[in-house]
Design a protein that fits this description.
Elements lengths: L2 E5 L14 E3 L4 E5 L17 E4 L2 E2 L5 E2 L2 E4 L6 E6 L3 E9 L2 E2 L3 E5 L1
Parallel strand pairs: 2-11
Antiparallel strand pairs: 1-3, 3-8, 4-5, 4-9, 6-7, 7-8, 9-10, 9-11
Length: about 110
């Protein structure tokens, strides 16, 4: 399962709109977390680092992809994006061949 870890390094919490989409704004930095945990919230074992997808496309580091810019990270389980434009996009991860939940984001 992935989640929104932080917006602008903790300046605010991401909140969902009436449709369940997470609200963000151009210029904000949004970090997503894919750290795998079991029912006891303990970190699980993995074989390969996660692959991150924005709108179904695996975008490489430091790439502008439509609405977002993917920043680099020393932690592969974190996806760090800068919101560039208004619009709606989806974020998903895949770890060891298992796809995560999809987070729908709306940049206003």
């Amino acid at each position: 399962m992935i989640n929104v870890r932080t917006v602008n390094n903790g300046e605010r919490d991401a909140l969902p709109d009436a449709d369940g989409r997470w609200i963000v704004y151009p210029g904000e930095r949004v970090d997503f977390d894919s750290t795998q945990r079991n029912a006891n919230r303990e970190i699980c074992r993995w074989d390969a680092e996660p692959q991150w997808y924005v709108d179904g496309v695996n975008i490489p580091l430091e790439t502008l992809s439509g609405l977002v810019y993917r920043r680099g990270s020393s932690q592969p389980f974190l996806l760090k994006l800068t919101i560039e434009h208004r619009g709606v996009f989806e974020v998903q991860a895949e770890i060891d061949g298992v796809k995560s939940n999809v987070l729908v984001m709306t940049a206003r």
